[in-house]
């Protein structure tokens, strides 16, 4: 077997295990499998892995660094893929991200809303789907300086996105917090996100996307009601430590 064939077989086996977990979590929660979208986080892995996974039926991929995302999206431009940007985003990168991303999961401040709106105005593609990143630890007064909006800030951000030309409010994103009252309690954290999501839909009923859960806690996210799970290492393998 060639190296490419071996890698394809490895990815297929990993993907099958993740699919089994998602299916099992959906059944346990009384949800249809079609209610949950798998987004594969391909950061640090080559475009060739994206192409192999696309051949296995994966259509949605996420990146968290703009430079890597630009190159990977260009290398796979011939494939019918959906690209999600999930990393912290500086306003000076908004124009670049708007060039390839279908979804931005990390909108957390008004300044970024304005930058993305201006960037979308310069592109020919349709409106950009925006998710508000919720930092649940900030509800406990922690996490200052980290990415994500405090739950109390979600309403104002949602209104800004709805009013911004070229942007569409898609929903919410979170990462299970490492500090605060919900630290080490992903199920409770995701339940809290769902509560915030219900409030959000009073601003825009169509903003029903809930991006939560990763390789370690996708079951808890699906049980809570997540619509999208962001899985990297469980599909692609454990990433090497950065030197």
TrEMBL record:
The cofactor(s) it depends on are:
pyridoxal 5'-phosphate
Gene3D superfamilies in the cross-refs? Alanine racemase (3.20.20.10)
Question: Which Pfam family, any one, appears in the UniProt record?
Answer: Ala_racemase_N
Q: Which UniProt keywords apply?
A: Pyridoxal phosphate
Ribonucleoprotein as a keyword of this entry, yes or no, is no
Domain Alanine racemase N-terminal, by residue range, is: 15-240
Q: CDD domains under this entry?
A: PLPDE_III_YBL036c_like (cd00635)
Superkingdom of origin organism: Bacteria
Q: Which residues carry this modification: N6-(pyridoxal phosphate)lysine?
A: 43
- Which GO molecular-function terms appear in the entry? pyridoxal phosphate binding
Q: What does this protein do?
A: Pyridoxal 5'-phosphate (PLP)-binding protein, which is involved in PLP homeostasis.
Q: Which family does it belong to?
A: Belongs to the pyridoxal phosphate-binding protein YggS/PROSC family.
What is the protein's name according to its record? Answer: Pyridoxal phosphate homeostasis protein
Name the source organism.
Streptomyces triticirhizae
């Amino acid at each position: 077997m060639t190296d490419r064939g071996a890698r394809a077989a490895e990815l297929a086996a990993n993907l099958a295990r993740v699919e089994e977990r998602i299916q099992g979590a959906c059944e346990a929660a009384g949800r249809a499998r079609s209610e949950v979208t798998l987004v594969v986080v391909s950061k640090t892995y080559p475009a060739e892995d994206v192409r192999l996974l696309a051949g296995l039926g994966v259509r949605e991929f996420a990146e968290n660094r703009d430079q890597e995302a630009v190159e990977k999206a260009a290398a796979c431009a011939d494939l019918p893929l959906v690209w999600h940007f999930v990393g912290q985003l500086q306003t000076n990168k908004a124009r670049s991200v708007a060039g390839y991303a279908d979804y931005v999961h990390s909108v957390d401040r008004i300044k970024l809303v304005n930058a993305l709106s201006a960037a979308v105005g310069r592109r020919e593609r349709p409106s950009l789907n925006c998710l508000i990143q919720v930092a649940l630890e900030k509800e406990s007064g922690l996490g200052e300086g980290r990415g994500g909006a405090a739950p109390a800030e979600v309403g104002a951000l949602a209104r800004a996105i709805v009013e911004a030309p070229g942007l569409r409010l898609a929903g919410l994103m979170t990462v299970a917090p490492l500090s605060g009252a919900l630290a080490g309690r992903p199920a409770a954290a995701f339940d809290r996100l769902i509560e915030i999501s219900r409030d959000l839909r009073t601003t825009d009923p169509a903003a029903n996307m809930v991006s939560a859960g990763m390789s370690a806690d996708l079951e808890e996210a699906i049980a809570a009601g997540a619509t999208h799970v962001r899985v990297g290492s469980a599909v692609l393998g454990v990433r090497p430590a950065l030197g």
